[in-house]
Structure formats: C-alpha cells, structure tokens
UniProtKB/TrEMBL annotation:
Belongs to the GST superfamily. It comes from the Bacteria. This is Maleylacetoacetate isomerase. One of its GO terms (molecular function) is isomerase activity. It comes from Bowmanella denitrificans. The gene is maiA_2. Keywords: Isomerase.
Amino acid sequence: MLALYHEWDSLMSFKVRACLAEKQLAWQSRRVSLRDFEHLRPAYLALNPAGVVPTLVHNQQVICESSHINEYLDQAFQPSLVSERIELRDSMRSWCGYFDEVIHPTLRVASFQLMIRQRFMGMSQQDVQALIRHHPQPARAQAFQNLVDTPVDYQAVLTSIEKLYEVAALMEQRLQQTLWLAGNGFSLADIASMALLDRIDRLGFDFIWRNKPALAGWIERVRARPTFSLAACPAQFRMPAPRAEDLAKLGSLLAQQGL
C-alpha cells in the first residue's frame, strides 16, 4: 500500500522514514540514487516534477514534499502525532517549517562541502565527466561541475556552524519550557528534528550541543526511541564521513573565532 521513493542518506527522506517507523507502518523501499542523478530522470520527474526526494505513493495517490507526506500519514493512520490543541498544532507546524526552511539548508551546505564532494574525489576525472554528461539538466550540471572542481569552502562551513549554534540555542530555550519541541507530547516536530541529530553525528559537529542541559535531555529521549535507529541509513548507503584534515582545519578556524 505504501511505497516510498527516497535516498537513504537524505535528511528529508530520514524524516519520512521516522514517521513511518513511529506509526509502525509497513512500506516498500524505492531507492532513488542522488549520486547518479536518478531524481532528475524522466521516470522520476513524471512522479515528482520538482525532482526531489522523498515521494510517497499510497493507493496510487502521489504525495510530494516531506512535511506534507508526514501530515498525510498522520491523517491516514493512527495514532496521531499532532495535538488536538490548536496552539500546539501551530507550534508543531512552525518547528517543521523551521527544519525545512532553516535547518535543512544549513546542513546541506556543510554536508556538500565535507561529505558529498568526497563521493567524487575517488573517481577518475573521466568518470566524473561521464556522470555529469548524463545529467539531464545542463544548467544544474554546470553548477555541480563548478562545485566539484573547487576546494572545500571552509568559510561556508563556518557560516553553517554559526547558524547551527543559533538552532541549538533556540531548541534549548524551547525545551526549558516543554518536554518535546511542540509541547509535552511527542509530535511531528520531534520526528522532523531526528534527522538533525543523525546528520550532526555524521558531520562530527556534536560540540554545538555543549552546555545545553534541556537539549541534552531531549536528545537522550529521542535516541531512546526505536524510531531513531529504524529510520537511520544503513552503513552501505552512507556518504563518506568528513576527512580528518578537514575537521582539523575547521577546529583551528573555530578556535580562532572563539567558537
């Protein structure tokens, strides 16, 4: 009944897998390899014209965009992860929007610079060029080429880290008042933010959580839920971890800035 078109190490895909796991729903996996630009091929674009993952198909109905998918799942299957109280429901949607509009773009920059580009570093120039030639959208192919051919932009990563400190501070402030992000009940807001924990682990940015006891308690509660491990990317589909030399360079730059 449920088929999920997703990439295993995609933040937005993690978010939907977490919702499926929390509701204990059976689903069929349809992997879309971002590395091979499968999300931009005609067959997938016919399903999702935006060319992004994930996409859910339920009884021949197609639902795109991760936050919409999770709300659809919540309405279609019990138990609900949305409060009946209007003010808590509004808070939940605000946190989900914050993940989509602020947290995800911030993580995407750091992920590309430290992890995604490594997928291509071990390939020969000939193989990289062949892959880019098969990119179905020439303008995006050229932008991708420019990024692959340049060194790590440490300043871009530092800017992402500064924003992540702001994210952590905001979460700490909220969690000093409530057990979960959108009140005292676990909700889709916490489901969305599970992906943040997973990617911070992979990037080696755990230092942003320091000296935030309320946030630390939330992290412990999230990790204790079976959902967290059930939604995680299997090892064979993980992007490469950041290189030690890149993390050392960042550590030096962070120290210089007093971060």
